Amino acid sequence: MPVILKKSYKAKRFRLRRRFTGVFGDFFRAICLLFSITALSCSFIYVYSYLLSSPYFEIKETSVRGLKELTEKDILTLAQIKPAQNLLAVNTGAITSKVSENPWVRNIYVGRELPNRLVLELQERNPVALLKKADNFYLVDTEGTVFKKLSKNDEVDLPILTGFDQDSKTKFRQFSRALILLKTLSNSRQYSYLGSIAEVSMDEIYGLSVITDKGFYLKLGLEGFENKLKNLKIVIVDLEKKGLKKSYLCFDLCDESKITVQRKNTVVRTQPDEKGKRYRI
Question: Which of 32, 203, 260, 276 has the fewest CB atoms in 10 Å of its CB?
Fold first, then answer.
């Protein structure tokens, strides 16, 4: 056999051997990898099954936090947590869904504290007013959500919102303004002279009006509430100096340029304006 042919034959045989060795090596490595993954998965499944059935992780305590209006019994009844249930096997999504059915619940977090404590942390809705619709009252929270019809078991003392029982863009805008106004008057000390807010009513023509427990009836119109209330304080201080703030008073602040004061159950009379005084009684 010629030398050239002999060398070519050896080269082809070497390439075939190398190619076969490479394919076999890849196949062997793939088999080992597949076996390793299978063994690891089986190990995980075994460990997970063991943990789910281990008495070490049985629920021995359920902690319910953040309660104000609701009771722990209310929440646990909704959650339907089985006795001696494994902590790791608890379906937190299902518990969240069940507890959220209560209208008082705004948010809920369900967590685990190993080895045996289940935690339910709630954020309840904070009612700020009662919305009157027809002959019924509904609770309204800080975000303006009407979340629950008032029942006999709801012990609340809240301002009443009236005149918002019809759906319209104007009513919706004024409803939002009424909540902002209510929050401002209730949370700021600079308006403490007005007393507690008893009612906020809405009229599509005349705007918002407020009744307080000190006998003040404020007609505020549709906008510019902050400036109007600043001017109102000056007027009330002046009335106190004159000894006139001893009965129910109606303040018409719809026109920012003047304030009209009317005493309830009395005939309105015009008093000569003194210098710097811009109100009529």
Answer: 276
Q: Domain-by-domain residue ranges, the chain?
A: 3-53, 56-124, 127-280
Tokens of 183: 């929050």
CATH class of 56-124: alpha beta
How far is residue 47's CA from residue 41's CA, in Å, rounded to a whole number?
10
Give yes or no for residue 141 having a pLDDT over 80.
Answer: yes
User: For 127-280, which CATH superfamily applies?
Assistant: Cell division protein FtsQ/DivIB (3.40.50.11690)
Region 213-217 average pLDDT: 90
Query: Looking at residues 36-56, what average pLDDT do you find?
Result: 73
pTM for the structure as a whole: 0.74
Element (H, E) at 109: strand 105-113
CA distance 71 to 62: 13
pLDDT in tens, 246-255: 568 899 999 8
Which stretch of 7-11, 139-143, 160-164 has the lowest confidence by average pLDDT? 7-11
DSSP string computed for 167-201: --HHHHHHHHHHHHHHHHHHH-GGGGGG--EEEEE
Q: Check: CB of residue 87 under 8 Å from CB of residue 118.
A: yes
Q: Are strands 249-252 and 61-65 parallel, antiparallel or unpaired?
A: unpaired
Closest CA to 56 of 135, 101, 115: 115
56-124 and 127-280 share one fold: no
Residue type, 262: Q
- Which is higher by pLDDT, 234 or 99? 99
Q: In angstroms, rounded to a whole number, what is the distance separating the alpha carbons of residues 191 and 162? A: 22
